[in-house]
Amino acid sequence: MSAPADNNTREVYKRVGFITALVLILGFYFVLLGRIAIGLITSGKVAAILLGVGVLILPLLGVWTVATSVRAAFAHQHLARRMHDEGGELDVSALPRRASGRIEKDAADALFEQVKQEFEADPENWRSNYRAARAYDYAGDRSRAREMMKRAVELERAERSGKR
C-alpha cells in the first residue's frame, strides 16, 4: 500500500473511532436521562411526572437522531464506495484551494456548472444526483447537497431493488 493510501486509511479509522466514541457517550447520556425521567415519572407527583415525561422525550429524540444520522452516513458511504469503484467520483485534486483546504469559490462554482449539466441530462440517475450533491457541497451549499444526496440514496436503492 502506498503512503497516501495508508494516510487515508488511518484518517478513516480516526473518524470512525471518534464517531463511535461520540455515539457511546451519547448512549450513556441517554441512559442517564432515561433513568432520571423514570424516577420522576414514578414519584407520583403530577409536576414531577410531567417533568419526567418531558425529560424522557430528550433521550428518545436523541436515539432517533443518532440512528437516522448513522443510517444516512452508511448509505452515503455505500454510494461513495460504488462511485469510487466505478470511477465516477469528482476529481478535485487539481482545483485551487484556500489556506483552509476548501476549494476556491470560483473553481467550485465552475465544477458545479459542469456537474449541473450532467445532472440535467440524466436527473433520474443516482450517479448524477450523487455527483451533483458532491458539487453542491464543494460549492458550499450544504442544504442542497443533503437534498441531492438523499435523492441519490433513494434512486440507488430503487435501482438495487429492481424498481427502476
Structure description:
There is one protein chain. It contains five helices and no strands. The protein has 164 residues and is mostly helical. It is elongated, with a radius of gyration of 21 Å.
Beta-strand fraction estimate? under 5%
Structural class: mainly alpha
Number of strands: 0
State the end-to-end distance. Answer: 38 Å
Q: Outline the biggest β-sheet.
A: none
Mean pLDDT: 90
Helix content: over 70%
How many DSSP helices? 5
Q: What is the string of helix and strand elements?
A: HHHHH
Structural Rg: 21 Å
Please give the structural blueprint.
Elements: H1 3-41, H2 46-86, H3 105-121, H4 126-139, H5 142-161
Task: Describe, in short, the structure shown.
The protein is mainly α and 164 residues long.
Pick out its properties:
164 residues; elongated; 5 helices; mainly alpha
